[in-house]
Amino acid sequence: MTSRLPALNAWVDEVAQLTQPDNVYWCSGSDAEYSNMLKAMQSDGTLTELNPDRYPNCYLHLSDPSDVARVEHLTFVCTQERDDAGPNNHWMAPDEGHARVDALFEGAMKGRTLYVIPYCMGPVDSPFARCGVEITDSPYVVANMKLMTRMGDAALARIEHEGSFVKGLHSTGDLDPEKRLIMHFPEELTIKSIGSGYGGNALLGKKCHALRIASYQARNEGWLAEHMLIVGVESPEGETHYIACALPSACGKTNLAMLIPPESLPGWKIWTLGDDIAWLHPGEDGRLYAINPESGYFGVVPGTNAKTNKNAFDMITHDAIFTNVARTKDNEPWWEDKKSGEPSIDWRGRPYDPDNGPAAHPNSRFTVAASNNPVYSSLAEAPGGVPITAIVFGGRRKELAPLVYQAKSWQHGVLVGAGVASETTAANVGEVGVVRRDPMAMKPFCGYNFADYWAHWLSFGEKSDRLPGIFHVNWFRQDDSGRFLWPGFGENLRVLRWIIDRSTGAVGANETPIGFLPNPDDLDTTGLDIEPDALRALTSIDIGQWQVEMDTIGDYLASYGDRLPKALETELAAVEANLKDVAAKAS
Ligand code: SAT
Ligand code: MN
User: What's the gap in Å between 500 CA and the centre of ligand 1?
Assistant: First the structure.
């Protein structure tokens, strides 16, 4: 098969010449094709069927142990000018980037099939959606792309009609970490990834396209591609507000996106639009409208249980692909904190031995179609997206950041987003638990210079006065003995309610130098076992600590040099001056 688009056929030919596959296969996206992929992987030993009675249509894939997370140190943005990629990205000149990665692709698909995957990020009939074609030699990628994106014939028809698409070339290569590169050429709308079969490195529709390349496209076209979940919060009166929330990887975005309201908040409902990525477009009415470019979830498995995320727990009992979890002796998937069963074989396929560490890899994942989610919003398919009431940033911070606060303006909110920091997690290769700056939770995902990105964010404030309010949350505050101060999970709905109340003007707030904090009375804590001291700590700030924090943020922003928008410096200076005033009054 070929397409009706000569440029696409020519590119497939060119890639086939370089990589020399045995066969070329164009994916249709059909269910039969999906089951053929699963069968092929079962026969070559890369996929195992799990207990079909307890976990119907569920499969397990085990990665190479050296290939279990994104690899930021091997991820490059290749723009003509180094400064266009910015200090937030690893950079390589495009010529050198192509030369290096093409050398690795030479003959890489010998003995394998080259799969052509046309896909659409976003509902196929949405003007906000954007298309791509991924070429890969991995049936695991084909199967995962089927669950995660709208792929196949319908996407191809749109691509043929539009005539343009993001090009993504992927090969698992030989999985040698020395020969692994994840390259982005935003000016050419091109991605080339080799040497990894893992999630964000290989499912090119996800972080590579929908964030790195799309953020670049969005800047040129006047919208935002963000690392945000989208959730609908319906009140007992039937009014639904949509919230877009950016948290760094593995900080509970999937849990928040499909939160289960606690019994003490009867009548509230939650609807999931997306759990990882949001594309935000300004509407004619001046509001921001969001679509989720994905149509599936690639979520962290460990910690998922009936208490932390019952929706996810139920959703992964059928039609799911598990990656790097353990198995019980009955061939059910098992992971840390599953709260039932016992591991028998670990994620490396060895008999389980606690001396070898966790049974499931801490970054083990499930892949499921969004339609598996019992609270999937029907509006997730709406071509025009949903209007956003509030934008929420957050991080994992043991100390400092209160449970929630609201920025004083859009411009101040951009500073709040730019100042996001979080303790690192297992989603990326590297040290876990150290605080690092992760502006807008986009540090690993912004395809261009952060200074230009912040300027782009600021530009929305000049064009509309109906933008969502901007908030910051931190579910992860601990006391001196390391206990979490806030129960989190379903109880986070209480915080979302305050955010909605603030956005609709229903409640007042306590104005502080860093923003508006809840008056403790306005945060509904009925039925919560939370000590007054803890609540006070969660809803107040330490001026001295925040002075240090603002200094650190100032130094960080200054590292962007002349390109840093002046408006951010102005906002920073205002917060610093306010902190100083309050400190002076207190002493
Ligand atoms: O590996 S992925 O980038 O797909 C998942 C994540 O890090 O959020
Ligand atoms: Mn993510």
Answer: 29
User: Does residue 55 lie within any of the structural domains?
Assistant: no
Q: How many domains does the chain have?
A: 3
Determine contact, residues 540/488, Cβ cutoff 8 Å.
no
Q: Do 321 and 274 share a structural domain?
A: no
Q: Which residues contact 166 (CB under 8 A, 6 or more apart)?
A: 130, 131, 132, 133, 189, 190, 191, 209, 213
Q: Which residue has the tokens 């006391």?
A: 479
Q: Give the residue numbers spanning the domain of 481.
A: 226-296+378-581
Token code pair at residue 371 = 């339609």
**pLDDT tens for residues 284-337?**
999 999 999 999 999 999 999 999 999 999 999 999 999 999 999 999 999 999
Q: Which ligand is nearest to the CA of 204?
A: 1
How far is ligand 2, taken at its centre, from the CA of residue 93, in Å?
Answer: 27
Ligand 1 mean position, distance from CA 94 (Å): 25
Amino acid (one-letter) located at 578: N
The answer to whether position 349 is within a domain reads: yes
Co-location of 349 and 391 in the same domain: no
**Residues belonging to the active site:** 251
Closest atom of ligand 1 relative to the 69 alpha carbon = 1
Closest C-alpha residue for ligand 1 atom 3: 200
Contacts of 446 by beta carbon, 8 Å cutoff, 6+ apart? 86, 88, 89, 211, 212, 215, 439, 440, 453
Note whether 289 and 302 are same-domain residues.
Answer: no
Pocket test for ligand 1, best of 170, 206, 366, 445 (most atoms within 8 A of CB): 206
To the question of pTM greater than 0.85 for the whole model, the response is yes
Tens-digit pLDDT profile for residues 15-42: 999 999 999 999 999 999 999 999 999 9
